[in-house]
Amino acid sequence: MREAAFVKQNKEKWIAFEKAITQNLRISPDQLAEYYVHLTNDLSYAQTYYPDSKTLLYLNSLASQAHQKIYINKKESKNRIVEFWKTEFPLFFYQHQKTLLFTFLVFSIACCIGVISAINDSSFLRLILGDAYVNETLNNIEKGDPTGIYKSGSMVGSFLGITINNIRVAFIAYAFGVITSLGTVYVLFSNGIMLGAFMTFFYTKGLLFEASKSVWLHGTIEISVIVIAGCAGIVMGNSILFPKTFSRRVSFMKGAKDGLKIVVSTIPFFIIAGFIEGFITRYSNMPVWLAMTIIFSSLALIIFYYIVYPRYLNKIYERELH
């Protein structure tokens, strides 16, 4: 590549980075580090192909400033954990929202397959949900309490067990990304088909609304966050399949770190979902308006934190940058 073309291709990126480090703009540590990785990549390329150029001198100077900004003058916030969820993660996650959309579509398709299969094959329900679960639920339906399965066990025990299990599922969805994105897609498909079959089971019994009123109390956050954990696995899997300008090893390390950060962000939401399932879902006779309030508030929380808020912060950052 000619030097002029190289400069034209990367000029805007370098200028944005220079503004970020010289004007002390608000930028997350990870985004700053990502800029730095791209810069050192360009610097290595310039050293190889343009050894006596002004471009190389400029990139060397910029890299030196960036190194000082990241490693020498780094100050750790006393409220590092709060800062992570308040600013750092939402700014970081903005770049992965398209992957989240893809993950949601995969999960939705799997749900549709589960619904169609369960409607057309009565044995499919038992194959997916298991005989024990189906039989217990049928007994509860006969007793007039279709979601009675959520009332078993102590509140605290249920809360802890459910939360730990949900976090385990999330880490599995992420970890399967190590065998490329197909591994995570498999986990998403399995859970999506199960959800579709589960809701169809109640539909065939004429209890869809009654079941939904109870199940989605905790399921709104629980299912949403499983999809987000799937996004984490696909981010890691795609880093293996599509390394871009990085070596595959460097790309994988970056993808694994990014994916892990997404999974970690879901832990508070799984705790909320576990609390709702352990302490609230068992009260299936609560007023419809109260159940709907909890369900739609949960949905609004997820949409705000993973879609609306990252876009809002990104607009503020871009305004400061320009």
Automatic annotation (TrEMBL):
<feature type="transmembrane region" description="Helical">
    <location>
        <begin position="215"/>
        <end position="241"/>
    </location>
</feature>
<keyword id="KW-1133">Transmembrane helix</keyword>
<feature type="transmembrane region" description="Helical">
    <location>
        <begin position="286"/>
        <end position="309"/>
    </location>
</feature>
<feature type="transmembrane region" description="Helical">
    <location>
        <begin position="262"/>
        <end position="280"/>
    </location>
</feature>
<feature type="transmembrane region" description="Helical">
    <location>
        <begin position="183"/>
        <end position="203"/>
    </location>
</feature>
<protein>
    <submittedName>
        <fullName>Stage II sporulation protein M</fullName>
    </submittedName>
</protein>
<dbReference type="InterPro" id="IPR002798">
    <property type="entry name" value="SpoIIM-like"/>
</dbReference>
<keyword id="KW-0472">Membrane</keyword>
<keyword id="KW-0812">Transmembrane</keyword>
<dbReference type="Pfam" id="PF01944">
    <property type="entry name" value="SpoIIM"/>
</dbReference>
<feature type="transmembrane region" description="Helical">
    <location>
        <begin position="155"/>
        <end position="176"/>
    </location>
</feature>
<feature type="transmembrane region" description="Helical">
    <location>
        <begin position="100"/>
        <end position="119"/>
    </location>
</feature>
